[in-house]
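Margin note: ligand = zinc ion.
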Amino acid sequence: MKEFIIYNPVKIIFGWGVLENCGKEAKNLGKKALIITGKNSTKKTGVLDRVIELLKNNDVQSVVYSNITPNPKTDEVDEAANLGIKENCDFVIGLGGGSAMDAAKGVAIVLKSGGNLWDYVALPSKKAKQIGEVASVMLIPTLAATGSESNPAAVFTNKETQQKAAIYNPAKLYPKVSIVDPSLTVTVPKRQTAEGIIDIIMHVLEEYLTGENDCDLQDRITEGIILTCIENAEKVLQKPDDKNARTNISLASTIALCGLPNSGRSGSWVVHPIEHAITGIYDNIAHGSGIAAVLPAYLRFLGRKKPDKVKQLAIRIFDADEYTDEEELTEVCAKGFEDFISSIGLANDLKDAGVEKAKLTKIADKLIEVSGIPDIIGNKDALMGILKDAFGE
Ligand SMILES: [Zn+2]
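Resulting structure:
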C-alpha cells in the first residue's frame, strides 16, 4: 500500500429531510447566493423554490441560473459566472445532479478568478491557467451519482472542440458544505437512477481494478459499495420511493469519492476518460450510459492484463467458484455486469447506446487528445480493440 494523506474538508450533512438546514448553513457562506441548476427538474419538483425560501428565511438573497445542460458546457459556466458578477453574488449553490454541481464549481472559479472556464482546463496540448481565489460552494445533490458533493473535481465539455475534460484541485475545489438529502432523489426517473448507480460503481471500480493488490481494506470497502448499489438497485427501481434503498444509494455516492476508498493505491482511471471521449462527441448520451456501454468490454480486456483483480471481483461480487479457470472467471465478471446493466434498463454495449461504428476512431483520437492513452491499455490498437469489442464485434 502506498503512503497517503486524506484531507476532506467538506461538511457533509446527510439524511432524509436535511434540506431544511440549507438556509442556516448558507448564512455562514455569504449574503447573496448564485444558485446553479438545470432547466427543468428542480423547478418541477419544487425543490428550487424550497431552497430559495429557506435562504430567504435566513436573510440570504439569491439569484438563479437555470441553463445548465447535461455534460455541462464551458460557455454555460461562463454565462452563469457573469450573471453572478453582475448581481454581486458572493457564493455559489449547486442544486441538481452532477452537471449542476460540477458547473457550480466552475462558476466559483470564474466568479473570483476571472477569465473563461476553459482557460483553467489542462490538456496535453495546453497548460491550464492557475486558479486564484474561488467562491465558497454549497452542493445539494438531487441525484445519487457523481459524488461531486464530496470531491474536488468537476468535468466540463467544450462544445466547439468536442473535448470533455476534468479540473481536479484538492486545494481549491472541495465544496464547503454538501447537503445530501436522499428524499430529493425519490422523483428521479428510472433511467437516471440506473445511470447514477453504474457511475457510483465505476468510481470505486476504476482504481480497484488497476491499483495495488495489497489494499485489503480498500478492496472490501469497494466491494461493499458495489454490493450496496447492486442490492438496492433492484429495490429502488421497483419502488422509487423506497426510503432505505434511496438512502443507501445516496450514501454510496457520497462515500465512493470522499477519498478513503481510493486511498493508498495508484490505479488508473480508464472507463471514465473513454466515456468522456464518447459523450464529448455524443452530447445526447449520459455519463452513466456511456460507462455502462464500455465496462463489460474493459473487463474482458483486463482479464488478460490484471487477471487477479477480475477474478477477485467475480468471486466476491458474482459468487463464482474460485477454482474455476481464469478465462471463465473473466467471463463470469463481464457477463455479471452485462446482466446487471441490462437488468437496470441500460445498454451494455456502444451500439445499443447509440454510438455509430464510424465514430470509433474519432472517439480514440479524442481520448488521445484530451488525456492520452491510459498506461494499462498501452497503444491505440489496444484501445481500438476495446472500443470494437464494446461496440459488439
Ligand atoms: Zn463518473
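Strands lie at 11-14, 32-38, 61-68, 91-96, 136-141, 153-158, 163-168, 177-180.
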